[in-house]
Amino acid sequence: MDEMSMIMSVGAGVESLAPEQFAPETVYLNTAATGLIPAPGVAAMHDAATAHSRGRAGSEDHFQVVDAVRGAFARLVGVPARRVATGGSAAVFCGLVAQSLPGGAEVLCAEGDFSSLVNPFHVRPGLHVRTVPLEKIAAEVRPGTALVAVSAVQSADGRIADLPAIGEAARAYGARTLVDISQSAGWLPTDAGAYDFTVCVGYKWLMGPRGTAFLTVPEDLGGLSPVFAGWVAGEDPWDSTYGPVTALASSARRYDHNPALLAYVGALPGLRLIEELGPERIAAHDRALADRFRAGLARLGHRPVPADGSAIVSVPGPGPTERLSAAGVRASARAGRLRVAFHLYNGAADVDAALAALS
Fold first, then answer.
1. Alpha carbon distance 113, 256 (integer Å)
2. Is 252 helix (H, G, I), strand (E, B) or coil?
């Protein structure tokens, strides 16, 4: 087999895992920015919006669907639903953790990590934020480190953090861990119970609309101060609508902030699809496509950022994204590089179309 045939055989025959639920009008390789919403999610939002516009009984009651989404996310990341808080922003949940740290606490972060994760610690007065290269995080945990905050997969270039080593180092020094799984949950099998806190948005690899986000906490709820608590955080929300909330929920729901109903209605089908297919199968699919793309890039003389095993590929210097856009390929420019991402609705033909546009 010649070199060209070997390259094209990587990921050959890989097709969408759910072609009946997606109908992209472009070659969509931009999941790291925003995932596609499956057809059942679009239909569910339309039906819910129609019901609300017509004032149908019960159309304003969101607790049932929010709890269904909470449960689906909990199963995906391997923790009980009582350990999952729901809201609309990862940054808000990171801010909750930041506000709960004592003055003078040291927070260890990775260079160039996503702003929604790290900025809440930079703007909280009285914290010492120390930033080191991603590959040195585990080695840089030290006595006095209160929290390690890191993304499981780097948004800018797809590099995967060595979370087992980071977790071991954090435990050795009594530091807590906050892991942003926004770029991993949905394709990379995740055990949220291995960390003190995780945050995740639902509009990327979970294929939901914007406005959904999740926080996981330890069994003891993590000692967070519920500074954003409103009426939905009450043990009985409908008895917590006026005056101070006298009894916060005994579960992680005490950290909920008022959810966007339509977003949560639209989020459930994407989570159910991931549950049906399984993260392991999705990971194998996404990685096969990313490997096919990396092999093609090598043939074209491009060197992607080393990120073995990642569904995200970051490429220095292949030209602006306008070149891909002109060929009907959707991708992103991040940190001065081209970034493409492969998910369950992509196939080998999408990889080849992107390579053809870059050749």
1. 25
2. helix
